[in-house]
Write a structure and sequence with these properties.
The chain is an alpha/beta fold. The protein is built from ten helices and 15 strands. It has two domains: about 110 residues, translation initiation factor eif-2b, domain 1 (Four Helix Bundle (Hemerythrin (Met), subunit A)); about 210 residues, Translation initiation factor eif-2b, domain 2 (Rossmann fold, 3-Layer(aba) Sandwich), CATH 3.40.50. The structure holds 5-S-methyl-1-O-phosphono-5-thio-D-ribulose (MRU).
Length: about 325
């Protein structure tokens, strides 16, 4: 059984879902009950063990087992971590459930360790490059413990700056249409006692150009070999504003988010979600009947707009370092 906190209900309700079937796991991933690239990696790895347990109960043959594992791997397309998590353990299926479970638990433990490590690297780089006693931050979407196995990526750096006494005000973008920033990041910041405000996504560019923040820190769903990065839709707008304002745009992710098989950002598959997510607000339609929606869940920020990509292996200065393999130096 995999126990998930239902992120669709936060912050109003803290409710758990006990997942015992592939159907429920796939549906939970599609509905964003569990979400965030590294958390999806953990769900993928643990999901293989869950598939084996269900398969043993229901007498599935090897072909059925493989196709059910594929369903988990393919539940969402953009975050490479989901397929990565599945692939970390699936070769060990013939060795039995205990082996797969042990490997899946290692995926979870390694993710937390990577997040804590990259947070040190990210905070060190920011404090070396931003000459401020208190660093004011803008962030987008949710990258904290909810989105990972523990601690967080971009959120982890923010938390690290806070612990070092060097964090100023945090601006958390609400992150339309599903409000991961307003609902989840704000909940985590509040729980950690971090001073913050929530702003409309459409306020972010102006906040940056008015000089109200010193750095943007965001997560990633897939980082191509050239450093182009897919993240929650709206991210590229922040990057453009940061370039104009001359402040750093930092991308933080465990190395499992790097996909060296993808050469450039334009090759990354961008998930398009149900149009009702933009046509409706809190379940009520806000757009005239008959109008269609357009709902890409992610966008791609070109590497030259990204000051650094930071993983547990260190920092790559993607905007200024022209080595073609600069991303490979921080990959797993
Ligand atoms: O659609 P979501 O909520 O899964 O999108 C999540 C993001 O875009 C995050 O910024 C990214 O996965 C990094 S999470 C550490």
């Amino acid at each position: 059984m995999i126990r998930l906190i239902d992120q669709t209900l936060l912050p109003a309700t803290e409710q758990h879902i006990d997942v015992t079937t592939v159907d429920v796991l796939v549906e939970s991933i599609e509905r964003l009950v569990i979400r965030g690239a590294p958390a999806l990696g953990a769900a993928g790895a643990l999901g293989v063990a869950l598939t084996m347990i269900q398969g043993a109960d229901e007498g599935w043959d090897a072909a059925r087992l493989e196709s059910e594992i594929d369903r988990i791997r393919d539940a969402r397309p953009t975050a490479v971590n989901l397929a990565w998590g599945v692939n970390q353990v699936r070769a060990s299926v013939p060795s039995g459930i205990a082996t797969v479970l042990e490997l899946a638990r290692k995926v979870v433990a390694d993710d937390e360790a990577a997040n804590r490590q990259l947070s040190q690297h990210g905070a060190d780089w920011i404090l070396a490059h931003v000459e401020k006693d208190k660093v004011r931050v803008v962030t987008h979407c949710n990258t904290g413990a909810l989105a990972t196995s523990a601690w967080g990526t971009a959120y982890g750096i923010i938390h690290e700056l806070h612990q070092r006494g060097r964090l100023g005000l945090v601006y958390a973008d609400e992150t339309r249409p599903l409000l991961q920033g307003a609902r989840l990041t704000s909940w985590e910041l509040l729980n950690d006692g971090i001073e913050h405000v929530v702003q409309a996504d459409s306020a972010a560019a102006s906040t940056i150009l008015r000089g109200l923040v010193d750095v943007a820190i965001l997560g990633a769903d897939r980082i191509a070999a050239n450093g182009d990065t897919a993240n929650k839709v709206g991210s590229v707008g922040l990057a453009l504003a940061c370039q104009r304002a001359g402040i750093p745009f930092v991308v933080a992710a465990p190395s499992s988010t790097i996909d060296l098989a993808i050469a450039r950002g334009e090759d990354i598959v961008i998930e398009e979600r149900d149009e009702d997510e933009v046509l409706c607000f809190a379940g009520v339609r806000t757009v005239p009947e008959g109008v269609r929606g357009f709902n890409p869940a992610f966008d791609v920020t070109p590497h030259d707009l990204i000051s650094i990509v930071v993983t547990e292996r260190g920092v790559a200065e993607t905007a200024t370092d022209t080595r073609p393999d600069v991303i490979a130096t921080i990959a797993g």
